[in-house]
Amino acid sequence: MKNMLQKIVVQCKYGGEQKANYNWGSLFHGVLLQALPPEIADTLHQSRLRPFSQYVLPRPDDRHLTWIIGLWDTGLAGYIVQTVMSMNRIELQQKGITLEVVEVQRNTQSVQDYFSRFFTSSTPCRRYEVEFLTPSTHKQNGGYALFPGTELIINSIIRRYSAFVQDVSLEDAEAIKQIARHTRIVRYALHSSVYYLENIKITGYMGRLTLVISGPEQLARLTGALLCFAEYCGLGVKTALGMGAVRVKQIN
Predict the structure, then answer these.
(1) Cα–Cα dist 223/248, whole Å
(2) In 3D, which of 59, 81, 55, 82 has the Cα closest to residue 13?
(3) pLDDT by residue (tens digit) across 192-232?
């Protein structure tokens, strides 16, 4: 079976005094691994590049939240889809909370349909807005970056993108530089934010930025496909643990 892009959207509700926040993403990662068959969970534990991202978006005005899982690997995706689609409740033991699963939606998109958005239009989109929904950051010089440079953004996406489009590798230093050289940040409204992973505190950023792509048409089309792929794979570090969730919008 050829790879396809998938997104699972789980709507949950819960009771009690506690209010959900995006840091619960790490707890939901634990729930997912515990629910999977042991051999699949072991494979994911040992994998340096996990073939999914996931994050939690709370609704601040009530006791509801949305759990979103992005998938791009056909091999392991089936196990994750089967496991999550059959859930009717979620136990967060660390919080002493049981969430009721209200609705589960699965959205799929073939490789062909995905790329047709970028490569069959009469003119390529050259302006994109990226909204960071959960804290994002990148490894840089032995620490974490407090601002998202274009090369950091492109590097973050390309490894996962190359695993998705297996017959076209972009993991070439010159190709990455070429894409980054023609992509620039022209506007941003970012603020620092903290993500907690057990006893670890990671400072990153949230907010919005606008990217403009110059250069040849085919480069602009490819860069657009890369940027929008981040909606499935996330941006930066710890995207399987709830960080780096983004929404990407074409600006015409």
Answers:
(1) 12
(2) 59
(3) 999 999 889 999 999 999 999 999 999 999 999 999 999 99
Pick the CATH number of 4-110 from 3.40.190.150, 3.40.630.10, 3.30.70.60, 3.30.70.1890: 3.30.70.1890
List the chain domain ranges. Answer: 4-110, 112-250
CATH of region 112-250 = 3.30.70.1900
Over the stretch 109-162, which tens digit does the pLDDT of each residue have? 998 899 999 999 999 999 999 999 999 999 998 999 989 999 999 999 988 888
Question: What gap in Å lies between CA 60 and CA 247, rounded to an integer?
Answer: 19
Q: To which residue do tokens 């489009």 refer?
A: 165
In the 3-class helix/strand/coil scheme, how is the chain assigned residue by residue? CCCEEEEEEEEEECCCCCCCCHHHHHHHHHHHHHHCCHHHHHHHHHCCCCCEEEEEEEECCCCEEEEEEEECCHHHHHHHHHHHHCCCEEEECCCCEEEEEEEEEEEEEEHHHHHHHHHCCCCCCCEEEEEEEEEECCEECCEECCCCCHHHHHHHHHHHHHHHCCCCCCCCHHHHHHHHHCEEEEEEEEEEEEEEECCEEEEEEEEEEEEEECCCHHHHHHHHHHHHHHHHHCCCCCHHHCCCCEEEEECC
